[in-house]
Amino acid sequence: LYLLNYIYYKGKWPIGFDPALTKLDEFTVDENEKVPVQMMKIEKHFYTFDDEIGTLVLHLPFSNSFSMLLLMPDNMTTLENMISPTHVIEWLKVTESRDCGIYIPKFSIKTSYTLNDVLKEMGMTDVFDHANLSGISKEHNLTVSEVVHRAALDVDEEGASAAAATGNVVFDSCLKQDLKFNSPFMFMIVERSTETILFMGKISNPNL
Length: 208
Ligand SMILES: *[C@@H]1O[C@H](CO)[C@@H](O)[C@H](O)[C@H]1NC(C)=O
Ligand SMILES: *[C@@H]1O[C@H](CO)[C@@H](O)[C@H](O)[C@H]1NC(C)=O
Ligand SMILES: *[C@@H]1O[C@H](CO)[C@@H](O)[C@H](O)[C@H]1NC(C)=O
Known about the structure:
The chain is mainly beta. The chain is built from three helices and 13 strands. The radius of gyration is 20 Å and the shape is elongated.
């Protein structure tokens, strides 16, 4: 018996990003490697800087009850060690809007995990050898051979409504001039009413 779980998320932004503003730019993978990426420009957004962890937090609500959080830390190890559900809940409250140029790379990820060892470590062991699964089939003595989880996510300019016309936006009250997600960052997709994290991942190189 194989257990397969697949999750695909393709959210629509309330207002799409203008594809005409998407430009080729550079992403710093590490001190030795830079790769080209398509950077999308966002006009309206919520962001803050979390001083405790030292990470830039961008909160992008989709047009449903989901939000994407993008986290670009000063030090990824620190973020990975310190991040907790409490932080996530706080970051979802960031709804202060500022007008300044924010750039995020287009990315698309597909991952596949075999969960046999993870589930065994969590105590789910019987199902892999001697659970009684006769309720599923009496013909064979079933055991679970493999549990596979796949996740796919596409992030691009597409919105529920067309991209906002790009007038000459006056940028003010920026922390820095422009904020670019041009080095490794973490992302999350969270359902706001239940504060459930559906996706959590790290983009080290948007081209892989
Ligand atoms: C990042 O933080 C970790 C521990 O929190 C530290 O060991 C490491 O040196 C830091 N890296 C940089 C580049 O500062
Ligand atoms: C498995 O469960 C079914 C239904 O409860 C039962 O009839 C059967 O005897 C069980 N088989 C074994 C080997 O325990
Ligand atoms: C299933 O296992 C039971 C008990 O181990 C055995 O008696 C039975 O013959 C097996 N059935 C099949 C179809 O292999």
